[in-house]
């Protein structure tokens, strides 16, 4: 087998390892799956009437479930970071990485396995949220090309945030700190156009909300699925995702490859 073939085979082995761990210790996986659904039920079933009336009939077809679902989908992608950062930190602090370094295993296979496993869990969570949203009345108007573009954008965001979670896990000294550090990422969708338009926010908050990564991504997702105006959000969203992915990947590989202190 060639070098790339070995790397692919090793990455597939590490992916199977991570998926088996997720099945063996399902508590975090279940919480990652259910938390976005609970938030969706809260915002649609409890707060949706008031928030929808405040937003008005002109946004996302006039129903709050249509407006908020793209935002909840982005929160679902962001919440997938937690499990990945913790699992990477557990591997780094538990001694298993030192064993892998003495074996004929591709250097990047461990990290690639974590990234692929995290993206699979994120895709499962996202499909669950969209399914529940459909039961609550979510009715996107997108045709097949728009759905393909939406899936591609969300996959790119998931790739970027998962590599960022890997970097956080590598830099964390304990699993507890690895679980706390991604909370900022999970909080960012709340300070974006995910739940209310940025124009309704105080001036200082609005400036931040309009210039952080999640707002252009949610605006693009909403535009693709519901036909609302998106302007130049698509280009900005892709630029954010690619930039985060590159910085996180380079940083993660640099941290993982550096000599460990004895």
Secondary-structure element string: HHHHHHHHHHHH
N-to-C CA distance: 34 Å
> Oligomerization state of this entry?
single chain
When the domains are counted, the total is 1
3D shape: elongated
| Helix/strand class | mainly alpha
Description:
The structure is a single chain. With 262 residues, this protein is an all-alpha fold. It has one domain. Helix content is 76%, strand content 0%. The chain has 12 helices and no strands. The chain has helices at residues 3-24, 26-46, 48-55, 64-94, 96-101, 109-135, 144-171, 175-180, 183-187, 203-210, 214-226, 233-257. Helix 6 packs across helix 7 (144-171) and helix 7 (144-171) packs antiparallel against helix 11 (214-226). The protein is elongated, with a radius of gyration of 19 Å.
Brief summary of the model shown:
With 262 residues, the chain is mainly α. The protein is built from twelve helices and no strands.
Which helices and strands, and how do they pair?
Elements: H1 3-24, H2 26-46, H3 48-55, H4 64-94, H5 96-101, H6 109-135, H7 144-171, H8 175-180, H9 183-187, H10 203-210, H11 214-226, H12 233-257
Helix pairs in contact: 1-2, 1-6, 2-4, 2-6, 4-6, 4-7, 4-11, 6-7, 7-11, 7-12, 11-12
